[in-house]
Design a protein that fits this description.
The chain is of the alpha/beta class. 28% of the residues lie in helices and 16% in strands. The chain has a single domain, classed as Alkaline Phosphatase, subunit A (3-Layer(aba) Sandwich). The strands form two sheets. An eight-stranded mixed beta sheet has the order 4-3-5-1-6-7-2-8, with helices on both faces. It is globular, with a radius of gyration of 21 Å. Keywords: Hydrolase, Metal-binding.
Amino acid sequence: MKQPNIILIMTDQLRGDCLGYAGHPDVKTPYLDTLASKGVCFDRAYSACPSCIAARAALHTGMEQSHHGRLGYEDNVPWNYANTMAGELSKAGYYTQCVGKMHVHPLRNYLGFHNVDLHDGYLHAARYGSVPYRESQFVADDYFYWLKQELGVTADVTDTGIDCNSYLARPWMHEEKYHPTNWVTDRSLDFLRRRDPNRPFFLMASYLRPHPPFDAPQYYFDLYKDKPLREPFVGSWETEEYLRKDGRIFDSKTGPIDKELARQAMIGYYACITHLDHQIGRLIMALIEQEVYDDSVILFTSDHGEELCDHHMFRKSRPYEGSCHIPFLIAAGKNVLPDLKSSSTCHAVVELRDVMPTLLSIAGAQIPDSVDGSCLLPLTADPSASVRPWLHGEHSYGEFSNHWIVTETDKYIWHSATGQEQYFDLKEDPHELCDRIDDPDRQNRIHELRGHLIDCLKDRTEGMSDGSRLIPGRPYPVTLPHATAR
């Protein structure tokens, strides 16, 4: 049987609910909505360690976080993994190409890809201080190298005055064709032009947006700037302590204290999403026009979400839905995956570690023993099926460090620095407005989920569990030593 082409469309910091097909009342995503109508949407998809590096380690290795060794965000740690998604697909006969974000170390580590057209966004650690010449983003990043050639040596994505983690928003200052979102599509189309037509390909189109800066072209800002927008979700359990202390521009762990700035952030975020959708549409149209769509499988997802002022928070790394709930869909052309139930929704809890075994199965390749994830192909044929009853998520994040257990219907959260617990009934309360940790009718369920977390942590080196209870305040590293040696 002919191996299908595989296209992985990866985004950065895209919430699971900020899509038209997911029911968002404001965001317009016509191309992704169409793709969703032709595939299976997984509406309980999560990023188990929701920030860029750890999430991408799960994606590229198929491992859960204690096995790949990334428990949070730390740059400049080498990526030395024996088995990677692109490496295994290359062994299976695929020509493998990534365009856009990798966020690995060293920057030109290909992780098994035959070729990478790299753009990692604005990485502080690869720009300043004692960065070796070959590791400087001005040298290693293909987009920045190209932008310098096109617009001059001083051109940069922060020329608008917006930091790469900021909630500030303003339109892109150059012609749209120079935007990094357009660049990823342009380079992906160039790959399709020059590919070997006799060989199956794996293309990872890895977009930076809607990760800040919120700098979509003016047209996309105009779509949202005069619209009434849904307010951020703020429940009964939050306080404004951190918002009042940190709700200014130089600490974006919270949203802005100024409600107009919060509205501008939403406008900028939504503008980036619709711009992204249109560029994904260009890529899909090219697949159709070049007559490869019918022989291809498309998987669309994101590395993590964005709190976007929900619960007074901003960015990611938190255990709440805005941060850790991600989009995830699988669609296929008419000549592949004949059992796929198009225009259906699967409520199973899935995670980024499931991408690698799923794509390897599609390719007919063996799944390495190191992989913890599950193949999701049976769920595309039977969306009522499941691959796990619950998922353990976590993030090392200083005073905000957290662990959580999520199921198809509810979530238990343990804040490991303080010992604070939370419980949310996601079926009744999908936006986590009411913390039911003290509800007497929920104590048996909370005890059950807490027990899962105790078991997950009992054999780990941090000492957060002794097998019978959770122990707060233990040292919680961002990266485990074996992350550089697997």
